[in-house]
Amino acid sequence: MADVEKKETVIIGAGPGGYVAAIRASELGQKVTLIEKSDTLGGVCLNVGCVPSKALIQAGHRFQEANDASTYGITTQPATIDFKKTQDWKQKKVVDRMTSGVKMLLNKHKVEIIQGEAVLDSDTQLRVMPVGPQQFMSTNTGTTIQFDNLIIASGSHPIEIPGFKFEGRVVDSTGGLNLPEIPKEFVVIGGGYVGTELAGAYANLGSHVTIIEGLPSILAGFSKDMVSVVLKSLKKKGVDVVTSATAKKAVQDDQSVSVTYEVDGKETTVKADYCMVTVGRRPNTDDLGLEYTKVKLDDHGIVQTDEQGRTDSPHIFAIGDIASGPALAHKAFFQGKVAAGAIAGKNTANDYIGVPGVCFTDPEMAVVGMTQAQAKDKGVEVATAKFPFAGNARAVSLDEAEGFVRLIYTKDDKTILGGEVVGPGASDLIAELSLAVNGRMNVEDIALTIHPHPTLSEPIQEAADVALGFPTHI
């Protein structure tokens, strides 16, 4: 009979939600054991998702800047790129640095790390099964663990669609980030966050990219006028965008892949070096042994929880991609802190209305809070105020004056309910609007806050001035 070890707080998964939950639980005085089946820490985000994709996007921007230098009176030789060096930089200088930092933080907080696959036997017990060579310090896999509290942060995996098996030249987002070469022709199935970001990155690196999207528009969920700004940029880069299309099949050989799609009953086949499929992700809840617990799933495999992340089994919590709310790393960060706090007896709760969403397109897009349509559905009368980056000196001096900031606020007392930014630095600017939404601030609070000049932050203040009826620079 296997040995039984008793643990206080156990966490399954060392991605953004899991490792942050481990650190916070340790800070709150709990003895924490973190179980991770991969041979590295940080989950999809740090290893094959959010972070390396931004590195690739940055490389694309640098390459384009070098090629466009003549615009600013700078004469250079035509830029060339050694993609192997680019990939090495992305892995060694970005990914490895960040994941080693996570391990250092966990060690600092005395978190026990076990490499293995956790499978639940009951609401209070799990087994840790070995998954290969041990990369971490602990080697006690194959044992049974009884826990006082459990946080599940097992993440998600890419969805595979019929006719597009992930192999060879048909890749998921992980494969798309780690291509051995810059494709001359690149097909992207799915025009959501990930697909559009990487389509833009490879277009900047010199690829001819075709995006195939099933819906009438790419980047569903963003306002039409925001998407139009990004579409204009994509078309300028030579990206072909096909919408209302059904991806039918991919046929490949050693040299290329032929992708067939259908629009209005007519089939078209395009030939490419690689095809990347990014049509969404499914939560990793199938192989956890949840059927032996009181934990309940919805029809999409999402764990049902209360506002603290607690499941129907009172001592089991779920966070991150397997839990409700958007599948975003920063949401997982917060959920991890809330769950750890709940275990420690803190009166904490998740509130998803203030969770910002960011798409690192060119230009960037970011949103937070309610849209006009969502407010209308709730019976709230709202107004909007918009200010273009074309009226901002810093954006003009950066030669990045496309896009705008929009505030969504109540008509009666001008409380800010939501914000939208498309333009330079949107991923950073949305933080101010997130604070405004979470703090239930009104437009006057923004208008009376002095923003430094010349900076990209000023359009937020200018939009507030528009809302108050006293615009300055338009």
Account of the protein in words:
The protein has helices at 16-27, 43-48, 50-67, 83-108, 173-177, 193-204, 224-236, 329-343, 372-377, 393-397, 426-438, 443-447, 458-468; strands at 4-12, 32-36, 112-115, 117-120, 125-129, 144-152, 156-158, 170-171, 185-189, 208-212, 240-242, 246-252, 257-263, 266-272, 274-277, 281-283, 316-318, 357-359, 364-369, 382-388, 404-410, 416-423. The protein is α/β, with parallel strands linked by helices. α1 (16-27) packs parallel to α8 (329-343) and α3 (50-67) packs antiparallel against α4. Strands 1, 2, 3, 4, 5, 6 and 17 form a seven-stranded mixed beta sheet that branches. A five-stranded parallel beta sheet has the order 8-15-9-10-11. Strands 18-19-22-21-20 form a five-stranded antiparallel beta sheet, with helices on both faces. Helices cover 31% and strands 24% of the residues. A hairpin with a 4-residue loop joins β12 (246-252) and β13 (257-263). It folds into three domains: 5-157 and 282-344, 3-Layer(bba) Sandwich (FAD/NAD(P)-binding domain), CATH 3.50.50; 170-279, FAD/NAD(P)-binding domain; 356-468, FAD/NAD-linked reductase, C-terminal dimerisation domain (Enolase-like, domain 1). The protein has 13 helices and 22 strands. It holds the Pfam family Pyr_redox_2. This is Dihydrolipoyl dehydrogenase. Keywords: Disulfide bond, FAD, Flavoprotein, NAD, Nucleotide-binding, Oxidoreductase, Redox-active center. Residues 8-336 form the FAD/NAD(P)-binding domain. The active site is at 453 (proton acceptor).
